[in-house]
Amino acid sequence: MKLGSTAVVVTSSSVATLGFPKNYYNKPSWFGQLLKTNMFPHHFPILSSSSSSASISTTTEDSSDAVAAAKPKQQHPWLIVGLGNPGKKYHSTRHNVGFQMVDALADAEGISISGVSFKALFGKGFIGNVPVMFAKPQTFMNASGESVGAIVSYYEIPLKQVLLIYDDLDLPFAKLRLLPKGGHGGHNGMKSVINHFKGNRDFPRLRIGIGRPPGKMDTANFVLRPFTKQEQEELDFMFQQGIEAVRILLLEGLNKSATFVNSTKSMEQLG
């Protein structure tokens, strides 16, 4: 970038000076690669003079002061994880609505989840101006933490910026619930994730209601059942609400997103 007639060269050391962690630049990560290719000009500070009398000194001391004053706030990416089981056999089952929600969100934002990293299908992009990563662990549900834990550890993502999306038997069908933290509620995928977070439960989660099994149907059989055509239509309607909820979460915060989620009505209620 140019400061009047003074040019600033971005190097690995200056990236660290400007507030970006060294590992974001040095690791073979997507964020570091974007920095290297200069695709993030809006993330660097822009210094300008407010009057003709203001100037930027070329001395080492003044340059350091200018950089320190313009130091941007560090921005970690969000990690959005859908839980489910891999393979066509489980594609449209109740236990895989986490996968479906992430797919719907990625499609809406034009982000491909076609890469494979950390035992997960993986995608990277932006929602608004917020960097995001999508993951669908391919470890099978009960070992989801192996994948999620590895991603969080490698990219050093704060847990408050890790959103888990998964099915919930205790919520009415196609009902959403957004919470800032909590337990696993008996969900094996969440149990695995919490175990790999060393027992830490302080991360947001978006729960998707799938209802309770009818009659005396075994719970394991129920969660692996596919949706009916009518149920899928209700889910598609709910996914649109979920997409908006995630956008609000990333751009405006959890409280506003939770308020939106709690005020939304199902397709059945609107009918």
From TrEMBL:
It is an enzyme of class 3 (hydrolase). SUPFAM superfamilies: Peptidyl-tRNA hydrolase-like. It holds the Pfam family Pept_tRNA_hydro. Keywords: Hydrolase, RNA-binding, tRNA-binding. GO terms for molecular function: peptidyl-tRNA hydrolase activity; tRNA binding. Its EC number is 3.1.1.29. Belongs to the PTH family. This is peptidyl-tRNA hydrolase. It comes from Populus euphratica (Euphrates poplar).
